[in-house]
From TrEMBL:
One of its GO terms (cellular component) is mitochondrial inner membrane. This is NADH dehydrogenase [ubiquinone] 1 beta subcomplex subunit 3. The keyword Transmembrane applies. It holds the Pfam family NDUF_B12. It comes from the Eukaryota. It comes from Spodoptera exigua (Beet armyworm). Keywords: Electron transport, Membrane, Mitochondrion, Mitochondrion inner membrane, Respiratory chain, Transmembrane, Transmembrane helix, Transport. Accessory subunit of the mitochondrial membrane respiratory chain NADH dehydrogenase (Complex I), that is believed not to be involved in catalysis. Complex I functions in the transfer of electrons from NADH to the respiratory chain. The immediate electron acceptor for the enzyme is believed to be ubiquinone.
Amino acid sequence: MGGHGHGHEPPYKVPSYKEFTIKGIPQLEELEKELQKKGLRDPWIRNEAWRYHPGFGTKWARARAVFFRGLPLGLGLAVLTVAATKALGGGGDHGHAHH
């Protein structure tokens, strides 16, 4: 039942670690140089390379996608709700007397 070994393709493809290198990524190359000056080496630095891959966009593009993904739908539904409330006569004083 687990779906393993039944000839089904996974819903994603895990990229090879060889696809991501720090060559050509100035921030990671600089980090590597700074570590070398201190006699250090980070064998896992390539794991950060995906963050700089053009397919993932800039840091701001990713943040915008996360925080504003539902904005158009949410704003549209809010406007629709207000319009429907006003059209149906709701949103008034709810039976409270004014002072």
